[in-house]
């Protein structure tokens, strides 16, 4: 996979946004993308940019609200095939440890 994105869909509301965020994530299931959700955003990877942008658009449209903000940051690796886990593995190799705290 060669196209990565950081996706954050944010409904602007005073209410709990959990249901809206879940709807955005669920919309990704209709697309040929791999994704992982974290507390702040979702990382996506796809074979091509068109599929990735379609998935991001669907996530945005899945949120039912009067105002929705969506942030998409894209890394399009056009000459090298690499997965998101490959990118993390490279950083961990350089660190010589996992790229996370040990919880102490």
UniProtKB/TrEMBL annotation:
<dbReference type="InterPro" id="IPR029756">
    <property type="entry name" value="MTH1187/YkoF-like"/>
</dbReference>
<feature type="region of interest" description="Disordered">
    <location>
        <begin position="75"/>
        <end position="104"/>
    </location>
</feature>
<feature type="domain" description="Thiamine-binding protein">
    <location>
        <begin position="7"/>
        <end position="92"/>
    </location>
</feature>
<dbReference type="InterPro" id="IPR051614">
    <property type="entry name" value="UPF0045_domain"/>
</dbReference>
<dbReference type="Pfam" id="PF01910">
    <property type="entry name" value="Thiamine_BP"/>
</dbReference>
<comment type="similarity">
    <text>Belongs to the UPF0045 family.</text>
</comment>
<dbReference type="InterPro" id="IPR002767">
    <property type="entry name" value="Thiamine_BP"/>
</dbReference>
<dbReference type="GO" id="GO:0005829">
    <property type="term" value="C:cytosol"/>
</dbReference>
<protein>
    <recommendedName>
        <fullName>Thiamine-binding protein domain-containing protein</fullName>
    </recommendedName>
</protein>
